[in-house]
Transport permease protein (Actinomadura rugatobispora), 287 residues
Amino acid sequence: MTALTASSPPVPPAPPVPPSPPRTAPDRLRWAVADGWTVARRDLIHWLRNPSVIAYQLLWPIMMVLMFGYVFGSAMVVAGGGDYREFLMPGMFGQAMMFGVATTLTAVSTDASYGVTDRFRSMPMSSSGVVLGRSLADLINSVLELAILVGCGLVVGWRWNQGPVRALAAVGLLLLLRFALIWVGILVGLMIRPEAAAAAWAPLFPLTMVANTFVSPEQMPGWMGAIAAWNPLSATVAACRELFGNPGMGGDSWAAQHPILLAVLWPLALVAVFLPLSVRRFRRLDR
């Protein structure tokens, strides 16, 4: 009689070996860019699947243009003369970039509160790639919002008068400011709870009002005009007015005389400070 032999149990598959982190600088850069694009795609898909958020973000700039252009604009006077709606639109472009801080920090704070950020940190992902992806997704959203605002401005009579090259340079300065402010939003979003993030709009309104957004600093009280002239938002808005050829340029202060230079230096300074702080904060969460 043939003896029956017990079959040996199946050998479980070996667990996957996580990829080793890159060691050279070019490999780390490629790793960060690849992870950043993955996170950016996730954020964009999440945004597209929330129609209410899309509707709010697209309708808000339209409402602001109509309200300031036609309701308040009838009582506004441009220093040195000129059409107020042509003066207004660069300010509206800059305000939209500034208000994007609230969008960024709310999304970052929500991800941190619901464990999404912890999930990213538990995976073999580049820390800088995660925050880079957030910044890329928000920058793409800002391009769409800016395009809608430009369309609204054309409808209400705003025009760029210095040719397409200078107009594109102005758009580039606006997006540079938005890119810099994204890192402010990421850092603050990693530090506060979503309940506090909902109130982020409150400090943004005075920051956009005490600037040359809606009124020239020369028409403000002396101390307020000095603050408004050195506001980073004022530099970008004044540079855009110069590049677009819109009214409202000029002023006696050094900041008013060199808006394009400041429109580059202010964002670069903000990125130099807040980008490394954001990456460091992400790496040190819950420590």
